[in-house]
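Table S2 (continued). Query chain:
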Amino acid sequence: MSPNRVIIDDTTLRDGEQSAGVSFTLEERLTIASTLDAMGVPELEIGIPAMGEEEQEEIRAVAGSGLQAHLLVWCRMRPEEIRSCRNLGVAMVDLSIPVSDQQLRHKLQRERAWLLSRIPRCVGMARELGLTVCVGGEDASRADPDFLLTVAETAQRAGAQRFRFADTLGIMEPFGVYDQMKRLRQAVDLELEMHAHDDLGLATANTLAAIRAGATHVNTTVNGLGERAGNAPLEEVVAALTHLFGHRTGIDLKRFPYLSRLVEQASGMSLSPQKSVVGERVFSHEAGIHVDGLLKDTRNYQGIDPHEVGREHRLVLGKHSGRHGIRWVYGKMGIEITSQEADRLQVQLRHFARDYKRIPRSEDLLSLYRSMTSH
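Corresponding output:
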């Protein structure tokens, strides 16, 4: 399966909201969904109907807001939860069920045979409601690989359209993901979806490995929001698909800074300044050798053009600034300084960085310049 056929299924409004302490208002849900849709994200997982009538009404509100994206909801593979998915205005449901012996035995107190008998019943029930079905393999990363194939084959025979491979605990690495997904790809004709968690910092890498092995769909969240360490970040996966696989997803990340800030505020989950792609400082440059290279040609130190994600390069001054960078920054402030003055300011900037532990603001730079010229 070519990487060019992969579809992003963003689950910010489901797994993202499952982050500890996170709860979106209806207005926030609608704004997040509409912004994702406007950016071109083709699929959205928008909630958990079994949580009750209020959740169902909010799902209906999102579904009724005129989105172009394909919408799905999530529930456990239980008849009473499947019934809660009727008349929501969505096209698909992910029926989640543990597939590892660990969770089957020690969470559900069930055996493998019980699971295999449950899949046809529950898939059939969801299809009778007019829904297409994804069978979600919870804890697939710890399942017996041969049994996992049996589960996927059973799902296919039952009429499911998709199988979700969930690395629920975020314990896999890309080579193992590739092997597992390749085996599934060779065994079934289902759509295959990768659901990666970031507990070991490998969610994006594992997602890309799954795509290489034949995954047709991948789950993401804005800013990598999600349970524990979060999910594969939408911005990382889209940027990586573009730059590493040459695949144009149709998703316009120029709108992403607004969405990233919205989700950051709505979730209460602050981003690291060095969070890849969207962090405040990921396109900031201080070191003299980098700044000199950027001023000559941005491609010298540019892996991703910041304009692709609605950002721009920012040259800042600090301990490691060189003469060219100092003169350039002050020049942008309308202050022309000599090379000798830049050398003197370089000493002051090193003291400032040591004493204040932050990037100097414009007023700080002006104060340093005035202090230098007054002596």
